[in-house]
Amino acid sequence: MAKNILICGVGGQGTVLAAKVISQAAVSGGEKVLSAETIGMAQRGGSVVSHVRIGKDTYSPLIPKGKADVIIAFEAAEAVRNMEYLKNGGTVIVNRKIVQPTTASLTGTIFSEDTMIEFLEKNAKVIAVDTEQACRDLNSSKVVNMVLVGAACKTGILDKTQIKDAVKLLVKPDFYELNVRAVDYLG
């Protein structure tokens, strides 16, 4: 059975590494994986979207609209922006922290995390993660990506042991233990 995971956020949040970890975990588990990133002005806080498709009957790296089993959103507004990819009954793993876009600050508009989360909850199963608290508890602001990947493991779509093995392959040894603690943060 195919698994479709859309990862979205803004540049610098670790979305691409998260996609690589998920892809490596699936490959190590003997699965066929296709993936692609759409990176627009990522270094300047622009949108980053990674598609990860797992399964032998997968022929395109891009997830069709309405077919994502899970959206892992590093930022709530990006989750809302990408909801058209989520299938009926799908799950959104979302970082509660909002990254205010430059255009919002220029116009005086404020994006509200509560408004975004409420919208998501009306349209999907939602696991909202307080990543600011996780970063305080783990003493690092660099682990949001692995906290969210760990949360996705709770849906059953990812195997936590395979994720940890992939982290070992892809993360510098000095940061391995920290990243594994982040994957385990939510249990």
How would you describe this protein?
The chain is an alpha/beta fold. The protein is 42% helix and 24% strand. It has helices at residues 15-28, 76-81, 102-107, 113-123, 131-138, 144-153, 160-170, 173-184; strands at residues 3-10, 33-39, 47-54, 68-73, 86-95, 125-129. Strands 2-3-1-4-5-6 form a 6-stranded mixed β-sheet, sandwiched between helices. A hairpin with a 7-residue loop joins strand 2 and strand 3 (47-54). The longest helix has 14 residues, at 15-28. It is globular. The model has no long low-confidence stretch (mean pLDDT 90).
The helical percent reads 40-55%
What's the mean pLDDT score? 90
Portion in beta strands: 15-25%
Choose one word for the global shape: globular
State the separation between the terminal residues, measured CA to CA. 26 Å
Largest sheet: 6 strands, mixed
The structure class reads alpha/beta
Q: How much is the radius of gyration in Å?
A: 16 Å
